[in-house]
Design brief:
The structure holds two protein chains of two kinds. Chain A is mostly helical. Chain A has 17 helices and six strands. In chain B, helix 6 crosses helix 7. Chain B is built from eleven helices and no strands. The chains are: A mainly alpha, B mainly alpha.
Chain lengths: ~475, ~300
């Protein structure tokens, strides 16, 4: 590592490194672009291995351990295999959209990471620059814009497959990602109010005195919930719910087109983790015990803190997947619209009020906190202690729809005719379950577009039937 | 048609620019001559696309191009807001609805009202003419000052674009802004009223009630999928081979064997698969095609 000579970002009013980056020669920009691209690919390979390994440990099995040291090369093997698979396009697919959809999610996923400050100002190949590819004055807004374009990939992938389950997955993704994007955008607002800027590097700079997770804990929690919904990860992976929709939007995808969806999912996971780190966890700033050492926040050390924080988020993603079952779709939407959005609106109102009081009156920060915190706390306590409206749902269990009942040892009603001795095999007569045809007769194909869809030649017995 | 005009607007503004007062960089020129035709192409494609979803995608192209034109003119906030709001939210909602109409539902080629196309064409051209002349008239008298001066004149010296937009929006245009929000809220409320289904109290079962009903119904698990021949939810139930004998590998060795045997005996005493099979193909002439009890095979 070359000796680092950090340029103080204080030269700019908000601490943005935009002017620093503007001095980059083209070759340095190219190097950075290639490094970001390669880094994302490597991180994806690593993230897949990491996820499989951690989930494996959580399920008391070793996980991939055959290829390479600790099974590290397993993801490379899988990726190579994926590339050499045959890429199939279903006959009923909309060809152009089908091919374009994976690109529409993968490209914004790569673009997002270019806006993330991975480290502070450094000296690279004799040039003063920052460990960030580009820094827009509206960086955080650009991240939201890229996320909103990425939704198209999933939605159109589902639609263009010309198949039922992918379409359902695409529809779910559309509703889900729009809803959670709103919650996500609202959780950003409080950060913008405090940082006074939308530039990612400036937001990191503003967190020098304290990370925003301590100042804006509600925003952080809302962001963390909505980021899981935004990237379609368990327990919010409704768009590809394999228990309900086969594989959801990517059911019909094969080969590297599927690979791109897979890649984009993991890159998006890295992206939202990186955004959470940038906005709430102080970005590349060293965590407490290390921050006592002056050199910790300078030069290439900042990369270490940044990626350590991102890795913690990735671990939480895997932890969630290993622990929680998928929640029901309507409950998921309810959480988004009835909890996350209203809570963040109220929270923004509180933060904005505090900010105005702090700036335009001569009240000190502590006084503002007290004046606002005490009423809010009283309100919250009153809400908690407020007698719950009796829900009719919980008590009318005895208004069981039909049949007659006996009562078990706990006093709960049991319908008489439904009780079954242990180990009973339920035959068809009791349930009326339709038995599949046991003579393996192929059903007559339906007539489509005036012509009968050709099928396999009927066997002699079937010809006898018809 | 209005899409076309939205696409046209920057072009008109560009033509009205006085090249002496404002320096347009080469990069901006290239961006304009790439993005302008693209946004026009999007508008034209939207009108002529047969498929509704393709139509929406063409419109997305227009919106994205407009956003990029804003970006090329240094208005980054406006550009990304355009992409988030129009491309990300509004067009996505359009798509959401269009996807529900099905993939084969293209426009019909039959003209229902006679002369409708010609009339629409004429009215459309007239509308474009009116709007274009209106815009040109409105823009002609303006002096072009450039991005920095425009921002500084509304938001104060050294302010950002966001501050300038916010100042304009919440002072000069406060009333239209509030009116628009009232309109949107009315629309949202109307949609909710239309979509609302009144339910009597207790008609909608809670999840807990549904679980209770299911648990007491005799079959806790859902019915097996089509093609699966399963008669019980117990994992001690073995699979039966086509001739009615037990598939020995189908029950885990960890399951108590006596339980498994009991299940099978009970099942086989009840009914045998041979009866089911013979009921299905009597004409195939199976030797034991005698029994027809239970009416199990449907």
């Amino acid at each position: 590592m070359p000796p680092t000579e950090p340029v103080p970002p204080a030269a700019q009013p908000t601490g943005s490194v935009a002017t620093l980056l503007a001095g980059d020669p083209v070759w340095l920009m190219l190097i950075k672009a290639v490094v970001v691209f390669a880094l994302l690919l490597l991180l994806t390979l690593f993230a897949i291995w990491f996820e499989r390994k951690v989930v494996g440990r959580m399920q008391h099995r070793p996980g991939p351990n055959w290829n390479g040291p600790f099974g590290l090369l397993q993801s490379i093997a899988d990726a190579l295999k994926l590339m050499f698979k045959e890429g199939m396009i279903p006959a009923r697919a909309d060809k152009f959209v089908f091919i374009a959809a994976p690109l529409m999610i993968a490209i914004p996923a790569f673009l997002t990471f270019t806006l993330i400050p991975m480290g502070g100002p450094v000296r690279m190949f004799g040039h003063d620059t920052a460990l960030q590819m580009t820094d827009l004055p509206v960086g955080a807004l650009a991240i939201l814009a890229f996320a909103s374009i990425g939704v198209y990939g999933i939605v159109l992938g589902g639609w263009s497959s010309g198949s039922t389950y992918p379409l359902l997955g695409g529809l779910r993704a559309a509703a889900q990602m729009i809803s959670y994007e709103i919650a996500m955008g609202l959780s950003f607002v409080a950060v913008f109010l405090y940082a006074g800027t939308l530039s990612t590097s400036a937001i990191v700079y503003q967190q020098e005195s304290g990370w925003y997770i301590w100042l804006l804990p509600v925003s952080f929690v809302i962001y963390c919930v909505s980021m899981v919904g935004e990237v379609n990860r368990a327990p919010f992976d409704m768009a590809e719910a394999e228990g309900e929709l086969v594989a959801g939007f990517n059911t019909e995808y094969t080969s590297m087109r599927f690979g791109l969806f897979f890649l984009a999912e993991y890159i998006n996971m890295i992206n939202v983790s990186a955004v959470a780190t940038t906005l709430f966890l102080g970005g590349w700033r060293a965590p407490w015990p290390f921050s006592l050492w002056d050199g910790a926040n300078t030069g290439y050390w900042t990369l270490l803190w940044f990626f350590a924080k991102v890795l913690i988020f990735m671990f939480v993603f895997v932890w969630l997947r290993g622990t929680l079952p998928r929640i029901r779709y309507d409950q998921f939407m309810k959480v988004g619209w009835k909890v996350l959005v209203p809570v963040s609106l109220v929270w923004i109102l509180l933060v904005a009020t505090a900010r105005v009081l702090n700036r335009s009156t001569d009240l000190s920060t502590r006084e503002v906190m007290l004046w606002m915190g005490i009423p809010v706390a009283v309100l919250l306590i009153a809400l908690l202690l407020w007698p719950d409206k009796k829900k009719p749902d919980d008590e009318d269990l005895d208004e069981y729809p039909d049949g007659d009942y006996t009562v078990d040892e706990h006093g709960h009603p049991i319908p008489v005719d439904d009780r079954l001795p242990a180990g009973t095999a339920i035959g068809q007569t009791t349930t009326g379950y339709p038995v599949p045809p046991l003579n393996l007769k192929v059903p007559v194909p339906p007539i489509r577009n005036g012509a009968r869809v050709s099928t396999i030649a009927p066997s002699p017995t079937e010809q006898g039937d018809t | 048609m209005s899409v076309l005009l939205t696409a046209l607007a920057p072009a008109v503004g560009y033509l009205a620019e006085d090249p002496v007062t404002v320096v347009v960089t080469t990069g901006e020129k290239i961006a304009f001559w790439v993005l302008g035709p693209l946004s026009l192409l999007g508008g034209v494609g939207m009108i002529f696309a047969k498929n509704a979803v393709h139509s929406a995608l063409w419109l997305v192209l227009t919106m994205l191009s407009l956003g990029c034109i804003y970006l090329a003119q240094q208005a980054q906030f406006l550009g990304f807001a355009q992409i988030i709001v129009y491309t990300g939210a509004i067009m996505m909602l359009f798509l959401f609805v269009l996807m529900l109409t099905g993939r084969e539902s293209s426009d019909s080629v039959i003209e229902v009202l006679r002369g409708q196309r010609v009339a629409a064409l004429l009215v459309g051209i007239g509308f474009v003419g009116i709007l274009a002349t209106g815009i040109i008239h409105a823009v002609r008298g303006l002096t072009v000052v450039g991005y920095e001066t425009a921002v500084a004149s509304t938001g104060g010296a050294g302010s950002t674009e966001m501050k300038a937009i916010a100042t304009t929006l919440f002072t000069d245009f406060l009333f239209p802004f509030e009116l628009t929000s009232a309109l949107l809220i009315t629309a949202a409320l109307g949609a909710m009223v239309l979509a609302h289904v009144e339910k009597r109290p207790g008609e909608k079962k809670s999840q807990r009630q549904l679980v209770a009903i299911r648990m007491r119904s005799g079959r806790m698990s859902p019915l097996p999928g089509p093609g699966v021949f399963a008669t019980s939810s117990s994992n001690a139930t073995p699979a039966l081979l086509p001739d009615g004998t037990i598939a020995p590998e189908s029950v885990s060795a960890l399951v108590e064997q006596s339980e498994s045997r009991r299940v099978v005996e009970r099942y086989r005493a009840d009914r045998s698969l041979t009866a089911i099979e013979s009921a299905e193909h009597q004409q195939s002439g199976r030797p034991d095609g005698t029994a027809d009890e239970g009416g199990v095979a449907r």
